[in-house]
Each structure stands twice: as structure tokens, then as C-alpha cells.
Amino acid sequence: MSTAGKVIRCRAAVSWAPNTPATIEEIEVAPPQAGEVRIKIVATSVCHSDLYHLLESMTEDGFPTVLGHEGAGIVESVGPGVTEFQPGDKAIPLFLCQCKECRFCKSPRTNQCERAWTRIRQEIMAGVESRFTCKGKRIHQFMGTSTFSEYTVINQIAVTKIDPAAPLDKVCLLGCGICTGYGAAVNTAKVEAGSSCAVFGLGAVGLAAVMGCKAAGASRIIAVDINPDKAEKAKELGATDFLNPKDHSQPVHEVISGMTGGGVDFSLECVGNVEVMRSALESSMEAWGVSVVVGWTDMFDIAIRPRHLICGRTWKGSMFGGFKAKDGVAGMVRAFLEKKVKLDEFISHNMALEQVNDAIELMRNSQCAPSAGT
User: In sequence order, which residues have a C-beta less than 8 Å from that of residue 325 and are 6 or more positions away?
Assistant: First the structure.
């Protein structure tokens, strides 16, 4: 029986309040409105941004919500005016949209989209609109996506159609972390062949940044993390050195300076910690180093001294790896199918939706890469 045009009742992991376990609830997912697409989520993964909202920023107005923004699925139905998608298409929801019409989308200088700034309320990390209800209450759609639900509804400018041959349980990872780290190295830092790099933080984003540095031809890639268990995976993806700051009495930037004769050409902070951001900057070569802030946080200010930049360093930020969202994700899916990008190495667990709290705890305790689930 066709569900097009009808409310769908399905399971979702609803987070009713900050710092509390999600509960599996039956929610109502409204039909797509004009310009929207309803997607049956086949696979999703856990990203640190989910944990940030649930356990760190804990903004009360951002709840109740359905978390999840790294997902992949199949188009179930489309709203009026949608011509790019049809039922049965494989698709990946996007937290960053690409309308292809605004001045930002038309500019090669940014991957931002003006409509993203009005579609998402950044202070609560949720879409302005929601097609979810549960127990008579409106439920936020986290980052406009909410992939911890069996179905979701998203504006077509925040969905990309992908190759029908793509395995959804793997390419779901491209919805955030892998593109964010890989693109930060390739698109934002523009790592050069033969250069030296340092990547701070070896979660999925950092490991993807290592992979990006390797793809760009860096000759030395120093992977930095306080968890020694991350060393093997980092080297598998291209790191030449592993550095645990806890093993040294000197500040980490001084250690890296000593290892490289003054600092690396490129450094990438993939933690979301303002102190690490400064360490990454100071670890880059003072005369020409490029340091990129990749990890997300909006809780603290960061302080540096002017001389850290005046002598020639460049300090940059990177959102979603600099990828134009719809085009970039579709391209990364093709790159995976052509074996130019690795994804299997980033999957440590396969879990059911009912185990979402277990997956969150695994990530909270740094015991996993993204956990793909269905």
C-alpha cells in the first residue's frame, strides 16, 4: 500500500531532554510539503556533533529532538515541485544545504548557502520547521535531518541523490565526519605534495583528515591523540608518526617543532577544543604554516597572541570540509565506489536503532569509530 501523501508512524530515538538517554518512540512523520523529500532511512551513524548537542552544549530549547545527521536511505515520496528526486532514489540527507541559486552557492570562495542560515537555528542545532510529532508534541529535527528515525522529511536543497550502486550502510558516513575531515585537508588547507602535516584528534574527522593529507601527497603526517589505541588506525590511513602529548613534558607544539625543524606546513584541529586549536596553530611553521579549525564548538572563546599570525601563519576555519554539499557528497560517493576513498576502516560496530544509547556511550568513551546502524 502506498504511503505517499499520508502520515507515516514509525520508530525514532527521541531525546526528550539534555544529558538523558534517548527512548525509542513511535512518532508521526508528516507528508513532504512543497520542495520537500521524505526518505526511509536505511543506515545512520553517530557523530560527535550529536554528543555535543546532547551532552555538552545541552541547550534546553533544542529538546525534545531526534538526533542523527549522518544517514542514507531511499526516497519514499516527494512534495509538490520536486523534480530532482523520485521514489526509489538512493539519497543522503545533508545538514548543510546547497540551493545553487544564492550568491554563496554561485561563488567558488565558499561552500555556504544563504538559505542554510535561515533553514537551521544554529543556537539550538535544529531546523526551523519540523515534520515530526510524538505524543502530541512537536519534535525538533536535529540539524534539519534527524536520521535516528526510520523516516525523515528534508528540503530538497539539503538532499543529494547518489549512485544506485552505493552501499547505504557505508556511504552514510559521508553525511558529515568523513567529508568534514577529508575536505579540510584537501579543499580548505590545500595540503601540498611533499609537505608536512599534523592532525590533532583521531576520531572519524581526524582520521579522515589523515586520509586527506595522504591523498594530497603529504610526505609526513603526524597524528596527535591522547589515546594510544588510535595509533594503528591512523597509520593504516596514512600517518607516518603518532604523538601522544601525555608522553612528553614539553607542550605538544614544542615537540612538533623539534620533530620538524620549526613546525609543520599544515595543521588541522579535529577535536573542537579551544586549547587544542591554539596548540595546532602554534605547531605550524611560523613563517608560512596553515592551520585549520575543523572541530565544532560554540561554548568558549579562544585567545592567541598577535605574533602567532603576524610572521606569516594563516588560520582558517572549515565547515563540512569546504565541500559544496550536494555536489561534494555525490562526488565522494563516486570516489568510494572507485576505491579512491576508504570507508570500511571507519566502521567499528554495526548496531540496531534500539542500541543508540550504547552507540553514544561507545563514542563518549572513545571506544569506537562511527557506529553504523539501521
Answer: 94, 96, 97, 98, 111, 113, 158, 160
Q: DSSP characters for 256-322?
A: HHHHHTS-BSEEEE-S--HHHHHHHHHHB-TTT-EEEE-S---S------THHHHTS-EEEE-SGGG
Question: What grid cell was written down for 105?
Answer: 552557492
Which residues form the domain of 136? 1-18+89-160
pTM value is: 0.93
pLDDT digits (tens, 9 = 90+) for 128-182: 899 999 999 999 999 999 999 999 999 999 999 999 999 999 999 999 999 999 9
Residue 5 and residue 124 share a domain: yes
Q: What's the confidence (pLDDT) of residue 371?
A: 44
Calculate the CA 145 to chain-centre distance. 13
Instruction: Judge if 133 and 185 occupy the same domain.
Output: no
Residues 330 and 305 sit within 8 Å (Cβ to Cβ): no
CA dist 99 → 17, 35, 119, 126, 155 (Å): 32, 11, 11, 19, 10
* Residue 199 within a domain: yes
* pLDDT tens readout for residues 75-126: 999 999 999 999 999 999 999 999 999 999 999 999 999 998 788 888 888 8
- Residues labelled catalytic: 47, 49, 53, 69, 176
**What CATH number does the domain containing 227 carry?**
3.40.50.720
CA 171 to chain centroid, in Å, comes to 13
pLDDT for res 95: 94
